[in-house]
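Continuing the batch. This is chain 6 of the set; chains 1 through 5 are on the previous pages. Same settings as before, nothing changed between runs. Recording input and output for traceability.
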Amino acid sequence: MTFDPRTPVLVGGGQVSEHDGGIEPVDLIAEAARAAAAEAGSPRLLESLDTVWLSRILSWPYRDPGLLVADRIGAVPRHTGYSGTAGSVPQVLLARAAEDIAAGRRDAVLVGGAESWRTLMKLRAQDRTPEWTVQPETIEPAENLVPDVPMGAEAEKRIGFTRPAHIYPLFDDALRLRLGRTRSVHRDALGRLWSRMSRVAAENPHAWSREALPAQQITTPSPENRMIASPYTKRMNSNNMVDQAAALLMCSAATADALGIARDRWVFPHASVDGHDTYAIAERPALDRCHAIRIGGQRALELSGIGLDDIAYVDLYSCFPSAVQIAARELGLPLDDPARPLTVTGGLSFAGGPWCNYSAHAVASIAERLRDNPGNYGLVTANSGYLTKQAIGVYSTEPPASGFRRADVQAEIDRVPTVRALDTYAGPATAEASTVVYDRSGEPERAFLAARTSGGERVLAVSQDDADIDALVSCEEASMPVDIDADGTFHVSG
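Output for chain 6:
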């Protein structure tokens, strides 16, 4: 088959899970890059790289980590780049690399990232600092290719409602109420969903945790699995206590041929779509929806010239159960199809959640499945913020008929009506969804809720009152009347 020499192809993906610890992030990325080159069957690809782009590394303050990685793998890139803090970054960088390769601006690109967070936390507990590479101030900071995703609108910040581990559970309560479930029935459903995730991780050689867990072991609080925020235990949260890296190698078809990379190694990016829901969660039309996924997923399939039934492999960003449930609903995917699980890695709770770089692992795993089963298609969703910004990619071993295509669907998302959010409000309201946050000993310490005023506006509120917390925990339905004070605290009416 003859290809346009500028066709972008993903030729290798390397993944590293370093359980012994002690290795700094750039060395983990270099190890993953060498594994990616070995998968491509071309060690020479590394020295041919003209570009190294990395996701933000939170476990160490590098100025330009791409330079360090390049030095370790023998590359002399013309360009290095870095990202802001956002989980959608790997898919965004891959799309940009594909565009640049197709346009002739680049020939061979490494996209990757790493975290040594587990090692860092262990050393901090010992009051020690890692002896990792410190770049001098003479090194210019790398170009910021992707900005931070805004997090923390005024309505959220004024009540301390800014942690993803507290906000995603609120989304899950909105899901529960829409489905008309009791708390126990919904908890059991979450356990089954996450148990299926753990079973995929158990079969993934790159996963951080490879233990298949029964649903009850995931949902039942214990000293090792404490409640974080209802309905989530620790095992339902993304696991960032990992030392992991992933590196993806993309080049032009001409470069791949010149380096002797066999065509059974080639995976073609077909489409990538970007867009975001409102940055302020209180402005969203519904707390259990994500229009960026719905609209972006439809457009990604359209650009690829396929339908959802053509997708054989899926990896939905799985930081928390609500993210998976909402994405599946928006895309039209069943939650429990044994023929098409919603993850190829096992998800961030079990395969590992290395902050901004999980989606690089997802793409590497999708590419592995496609190479082993040529002719199929895979879809990856990458998420930033509070189910805010989405990057959705479609891949296949079949070349795209119209070349790689990328779209920004923000204009269409912006046409979706929003809710008026009130930064301050005093008066009666009706609870819409809630979550209770627990301390490290397993005791409830405060509750957050979203509520609607009589005029339909949404307000966020918090309470540390035991009676209010108990009332929320025992309430199975929405529409609980509350009174909200001007300082953002609420009390259950009556």
